Amino acid sequence: MTTLGDYLFVSGTLFAIGFAGVLLRRNVIIIFMALELMLNAANLSLVAFSRFRVSASGLPNYHAQVLVFFIITVAAAEVAVGLAIIVAVYRARRTTHVEDLNALKF
Amino acid sequence: MNSLLPWSALLVPLCASALIVLLFQRARQVSVFISVGAVLFSFVCSCLIFSRQDIAAAEIDWINFPGLLHVPIGFTLDRLSKTMLLIVTGVGALIHIYSIGYMREDDGEARYFAALSLFIFSMLGIVLANNFVMMFIFWELVGVSSYLLIGHWFMKDAAADAANKAFITNRVGDFGFMLGILMVWGATGTVIFREMAPRLTGLATNPAFLTLAVLLIFCGAVGKSAQFPLHVWLPDAMEGPTPVSALIHAATMVAAGVYMLVRVGFLVQASPDALRVISWIGTITALLAGLIATQQDDIKRILAYSTLSQLGYMIMAVGLASGETAMFHLFTHAFFKALLFLGAGSVIVALHHEQNIWKMGGQGKNLILTFVSFSVGTLALIGFPFFSGYFSKDAILALAYARQPVIFALALFTAFLTAFYMVRLFVVVFLGKPRSQTAFASQESPTTMLVPLVVLAICSLLGGYRFFAGRFLALPEEHHTGLVIPLLPLVAMTAGSVLAFLLYRGRATDPLNLRALRDRLYLDEFYGWIIEHTQDALARLSAFIDRWLIDAGAVRGASSATWGFGTVLRLLQVGNLQAYAILFGFGIVWVIYFVIFR
């Protein structure tokens, strides 16, 4: 029997992996993918909460599921904008490595 | 009975002044005519006012906040102000006439007469005012016209400086005067003299407040009547034309302080402590000025110090709680001091503007009429029996004898000094041999200058007698002093005169040479030193505040604080995306910690 704790553990692991990816990888596209991973970790925990918080009438809590759809939609939009920015940066700078994109310092 | 007379007496000189300034600057004859006409008109009005018992004038409501402040423009028409009206317009008219001759060759004649008319207007305003605010306004106007007239020859640095000095010194006193007026208003709720007296009873419970208020009001008199320690402007004011010195700085304006104190006598006499201070200030002024006058060489300066000394006598009388005595001396002094100044002016003109007495001498033969009238003035001033000064000065001395023996002794010594310096002046200028080329060839002045001399000489002869002065003044009651009063002043006067006569007869230079008195007891230098040092100290203080608190603290402090924070904060701006992400992560953890665990 899988409990809410198991789901949250998986979700936390996914989030940690994603965060590590964001911190450690050098390629912007990989960092982007790691970000998506963090978003999906959040989605997973929301769905788990929905599943395990059943109301008195036997129905799951749909608020969390609605929130998940929002996140999926916003993530899709974010991917569109983000990839476009990455393409633009690549065209301008001929690189997608973050240590080369350091113009914003004093 | 309402009458237009007071209004016309007051306003005609103002109109004359405005007319001259606006239309007749170029036309000298016309401006002289207008100005002299205006003052004669005022004199006639004053005579008519004086002759009517129950005269009154319409009042204008100027400021009126019911229950709080009521300032009308209205007139006090009692015996005191009627007499002052006569003195101001009478002596004023004579001096206007004298000025026709004296200023004949001056380029600024029109300007001079405009200022003179303005002065008559302002002085009449002080005399007629029935409340403190109106009096203060005219008080300042008198200051302005005095400034204009002292600085008449403004191309001369000394005259311009003297005008400034007079004005600024007066401002010091007037500031106190204003505070005093405000205090009295605050305590009684009114500025009108007539309404003030009955409300004073409430103040009797707070004598310190009353004393302070009276002393502050007295400050105004100290400035205007040139009492110690604000007396320094009057001798310098002699840079103005001589008729101005006679009218403003001897007969009328400087007497305004005395007049004001007598006008609010009920207030002044309510505070015994203030009276004590006032009488001592008067005594000190009389004594100091008398001492300094004995060693001056400029004929007008001697007379100026003599004026100071006589004003000291008047203030002394005010301080000894006898306004009548003060007014009596003011009355006689106005005549004989104006006479002396005009006589001096006549000598000065005859000698082509030579003012040093050691370059005169022997003028008794050349200027006979001036000589005679000047002798009358001198005798009146030193208190020679049966001249006007004899009566009024003896009245003051009798008063002092009855009230304060120490002040009496000092006043007696001042009487001795008065005789000494006046006889010195008289002997050196009029007797002996001429000591310069111009003194040989001097000629008597024009008639317009001599007529006022004669009229004033007659007034100086008669001014002290009861049948003459009693018409104009409430004379002081007689003090029973036995033989002391006619005798002791007589001895002092004789001693001073004889001493001066023996000492100065036939001399060509001053046998006495007292540096300290010659240099006016170094009071000017002392004031200069104080002002310089306070100014330096203030400058140093404000430089410190500016340099260290404002520049270093506020201005540079703000900029270096911004710089400092910037320097620290820009260490965080490394330009590395992942460093930002880690900081961002820490931030989140910190926020979560605060939201959930605290």
Provide a short characterization of the protein structure:
Chain A is built from 3 helices and no strands. By secondary structure, chain A is an all-alpha fold. In chain B, strands 1-2 form a two-stranded antiparallel ribbon.
Describe the structure.
The complex is a heterodimer of chains A (106) and B (598). Chain A is an all-alpha fold. Chain A has helices at residues 4-24, 28-52, 62-93. The longest helix of chain A is centred in the C-terminal third of the chain and has 32 residues, at 62-93. Chain A is elongated. Chain B is mainly α and 598 residues long. In chain B, 74% of the residues lie in helices and 2% in strands. Chain B is built from 26 helices and two strands. A two-stranded antiparallel ribbon of chain B has the order 1-2. In chain B, β1 and β2 (69-73) form a beta hairpin. In chain B, α1 (5-22) packs antiparallel against α2 (28-51) and α14 packs across α18.
Strand content of chain A: under 5%
Number of strands of chain A: 0
Tally of DSSP β-strands of chain B: 2
Rounded to an integer in angstroms, the radius of gyration calculated over CA atoms of chain B is 31 Å
Q: Which regions of chain A have little confidence, pLDDT < 50, spanning 5+ residues? A: none
Mean pLDDT of chain A: 90
Head-to-tail CA distance between termini of chain A: 55 Å
Number of helices of chain B: 26
The residue fraction in helices of chain B comes out at: over 70%
Average pLDDT over all residues of chain B: 87
Radius of gyration of chain A equals: 18 Å
In whole angstroms, how far apart are the ends of chain B? 91 Å
Q: Pair with the most extensive interface?
A: A-B, 13 and 10 residues
Helix content of chain A: over 70%
Low-confidence stretches of chain B: none
Total of helices of chain A: 3
Oligomeric description of these chains: heterodimer
